[in-house]
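At this stage, I put together one protein's amino acid sequence and its backbone structure tokens, which the following lines show:
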Amino acid sequence: MNFPSRLIEEAVMAFSRFPGIGKKTALRLTLHVLRQDPAEALQLSEALRKLASDIRYCQQCHNISDADLCQICANKQRDAGLVCVVADMRDVIAIENTGQFHGVYHVLGGLIMPMDGIGPDQLKMASLEERVQSGAIREMVLAFSATQEGDTTAFYIARKLKDSGIKMSTIARGIAIGGELEYADEITLGRSIQQRIPFGY
């Protein structure tokens, strides 16, 4: 791809580093920025600068934060005894968007993936154990993707903390709303049968 300006080429290369952004899309984004008021382009660059330099991680749950404690951990209205353990901050956002969870979180920073050399020591497991030992946790919800890595991580945590006395639960897995049974995979359908709930009128 030929560029009329080195500055445009640099901007295209920068945009194309984002996941899912090819060179053509990166060029469209670059030209869009050029068409905007210079103040808007500077506002974008300032937002990115602040993101890179000022972002912090919550000292308690390891979620992204603007302060030592994230807004969720600092919120006294949340149930601090109910902790949802997730792989990363995207899972926190997804669960929060449901509006159904009113506890707090613990972000591991990934899942156990032995094939990739990621074991418990590379995750935020030690601080999770410290939170359990503090006696502040009443129930722990293991909310991982329905994958081998997610199941391995959940199994490891449940086994590691089995003598802690806290209640362990996991998110239900089943058929998606609007989904057809014939298209569901056997594992999902099997778990849906096993984890069936009473039918209410």
Summary: The mean pLDDT is 90. DSSP finds eight helices and six strands in the chain. The chain has two domains: 6-54, 64-170.
